[in-house]
Design brief:
The complex is a heterodimer.
Chain A lengths: L5 E2 H7 L3 E4 L7 E2 L1 E4 L3 H7 L4 E5 L5 H8 L4 E4 L7 H10 L3 E3 L4 H10 L7
Parallel strand pairs in A: 4-5, 5-6, 6-7
Antiparallel strand pairs in A: 1-3, 2-7
Chain B lengths: L6 E8 L8 H13 L3 H21 E10 L3 E10 L5 H4 L9 H5 L7 H8 L2 E7 L3 E9 L6
Antiparallel strand pairs in B: 1-2, 2-3, 3-5, 4-5
Helix pairs in contact in B: 1-2, 2-5
The chains are: A alpha/beta, B alpha+beta.
The structure holds adenosine-5'-triphosphate and magnesium ion.
The site of adenosine-5'-triphosphate (ATP) has 25 residues of chain B, from helix 2, strand 3 and helix 5.
């Protein structure tokens, strides 16, 4: 399957995401996407290099993203990550971004721009 | 089976500590990567360790994970002092959860942790005593896939 390489910095610009931490890691390529708020579902079904869309903002999302080697996290609905979440993600070089959009809108835009949930 | 231990380490887990929850699993993942364990096996163990660690955080007062690396397999034991499980068959059922509303709001309580552990393990054993605690024993075979 032919695929255009999309970087985190591309989607930050296209969808006006606010970067909460790890600004130096935005050069990462996005290999796919996964959306979900149930952590054990994300543990089971997300893939390495995915951008993860969720409304969870507590520190445990950092462990999930690190363990699954995800490209980064976007928190939706204008929610803010907790301070502790940002601290942990920054220490790991894991980018966390926020968007005012609801899940459906953001996932739709990402899909349209070439990010897919399937490999 | 008797085989030489390549590596072993204990990781303490505190019940109810949501800020540090997951850190032991991340450490285990880093250790396995550093030893040169096959990436696919590291991914499976990361899922197993995380789900087991979170269950201790959610349902026990305290516990520990013990990682043993052998030339031919990885053994992970998780023991906790906690409420224990009354009906293990029920607990193993996908979707079954006793998580509180507050904990579900954080995204836990899908009832997928134990089924996912079992799915990713080559050998899976669980024992539990109500009011005392729970113990898991997981083996993943390396089949020569260790680096
Ligand atoms: N270490 C444990 N001590 C006591 N009870 C446990 C333990 N682990 C699991 N349980 C019980 O088994 C149930 C199912 O566990 P499982 O990990 O499959 O799902 P969950 O933790 O409820 O949700 P999820 O793992 O999807 O976030 C739990 O809700 C809990 O009642
Ligand atoms: Mg669980």
């Amino acid at each position: 399957m032919e695929k255009r390489k999309i970087k985190l910095s591309d989607i930050v610009k296209s969808f006006d995401l606010k970067v909460e931490c790890s600004k130096n890691s935005l050069d990462r390529e996005i290999e796919g996407g996964y959306a979900g708020d149930l952590l054990s579902d994300v543990m089971a079904h997300s893939k390495k290099g995915d951008i993860w869309i969720t409304l969870q903002g507590h520190p445990n999302i950092v462990a999930v993203a690190i363990l699954k080697e995800l490209a980064g996290i976007i928190i939706i609905n204008g929610r803010e990550p907790e301070q502790e979440t940002i601290k942990k993600a920054e220490a790991e070089g894991l980018p966390i971004m926020t968007s005012d959009l609801p899940m459906f809108e953001l996932v739709g835009k990402l899909y349209e721009s070439g990010v897919s949930g399937l490999r | 089976m008797r085989s030489k231990t390549v590596f072993q380490q204990e990781f303490k887990i505190k019940g109810g500590d949501f800020v540090n929850a997951g850190e032991s699993s991340c450490k285990i993942r880093n250790i396995l990567k550093e030893i040169g364990i096959d990436a696919d096996i590291v991914r499976r163990l990361a899922i197993i360790a995380y789900e087991a660690e979170m269950n201790v955080v959610l349902y026990a007062r305290h516990g520990a994970m013990y990682l043993f690396v052998y030339p031919d397999k990885i053994l992970l034991k998780i023991k906790d002092m906690g409420q224990g499980i009354e009906n293990i068959d029920l607990a193993m059922r996908p979707g079954y959860s006793t998580a509180t509303e507050e904990i579900r709001e954080m995204g836990f309580g899908a009832g997928m942790g134990l089924p996912n552990i079992k799915k990713n393990a080559d050998v899976f054993k669980i024992t539990s005593k109500v009011g005392k605690g729970t113990a898991l024993e997981i083996i993943i075979n390396l089949n020569g896939k260790n680096g």
